[in-house]
Every structure is written in structure tokens, then in C-alpha cells.
Specification:
mainly alpha
């Protein structure tokens, strides 16, 4: 189970349900935004071609989970922005250099 999955399932158990619930909504909106841009194969491509970026994504995910589980809303929002930006970077790397570059001619 990923850290984010753990955070989603743990939110109902959190003593700070209101904060956790609002963080859940914000996270889901961010995830929907990333999903709109996501190109299948991005993660696998970045894992193998840009391990530094992949490690930064994993580190942001860990920090995001810690902030979520501790109820640190300001930190959560800050790290969520970082997490989103890193995923956008990964998508852009794949779009420019990976197998996703053929999709540019279709848009």
C-alpha cells in the first residue's frame, strides 16, 4: 500500500477529521488535475531515465503523508504544491523525451 493510500485510509481514524477531510478534498482535486495531464508510461519512464526526479517525487509523497497524518494543514498545502509540480515535471520530461512525444501532434 502506498503512503498516500495509507493516508487516505487513515483520515477517518484521525482525531482531526475536519482538517483531514479538507486535506482529502484538496488532495483529490490536485490528483484530478495531474490525471488530466498524465501520459501513460510517465512514471516508468522517469523511474528509469531520471532517478533523481523520481526520488524527489517519492520524498515529496513521504512529506505529504506525514503532514496529512499529523494534521499540519499549512505544511500539507506547501508540500502538495511541490508534489504537483514534480509530477508536472515528470509529465513534461516524458512528453519531450519519452514515448509520449508522438501525442503532441494529436493535440
Amino acid at each position: 500500500m502506498s503512503y498516500l493510500s495509507q493516508a487516505l485510509s487513515a483520515q477517518a481514524l484521525s482525531p482531526k477529521n475536519a482538517t483531514s477531510g479538507s486535506m482529502s478534498r484538496v488532495f483529490r482535486c490536485a490528483l484530478e488535475e495531474i490525471n488530466r495531464e498524465y501520459l501513460p508510461g510517465t512514471i516508468d519512464y522517469v523511474k528509469t531515465t531520471d532517478p533523481e526526479l523520481w526520488e524527489r517525487i517519492l520524498s515529496a509523497e513521504d512529506k505529504l503523508t506525514e503532514a496529512w497524518l499529523s494534521g499540519a494543514a499549512e505544511e500539507f498545502h506547501r508540500v502538495l504544491d511541490e508534489w504537483e509540480n514534480l509530477h508536472r515535471q515528470a509529465i513534461e520530461v516524458y512528453r519531450k523525451h519519452g514515448n509520449g512525444n508522438h501525442l503532441l501532434s494529436l493535440t
